[in-house]
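thread: overnight batch results

M.L. [08:02]
morning all. the overnight job finished for the chain we discussed friday. pasting input first so we're all looking at the same thing
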Amino acid sequence: MYTLITVLIFVACVLLILIVLVQNSKGGGLASNFQSTNQIMGVRKTNDFLEKATWVLATALLVLSIAGSAFIPHGAEQANESAIKNQVEQAVDPNAVPSFPTATPDAAPVQADSAQ
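M.L. [08:03]
and the structure it wrote out:
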């Protein structure tokens, strides 16, 4: 499901980019580029269509992004988390390591030879 939503987000982004690029900030837009569209739809209807398409795609992008965050797969993260948790739990506590003596042990008494 997450992959499907990601693909839909990508398609919505590409379409939104194309529609925004077709629009003209001064109101000409698509209708000013093609003279035959003035006879079919008119300048006003073309601008209305492009504006509505922009709002619909922007809303769809917002909704898909929120839905995509709900379907993020968490299985791999939980497996990694448990592996890290196991390593932490099985780690040797530095306070539990035996400490080595710092003083030298007493030397054994030297026995003198009685064969003098």
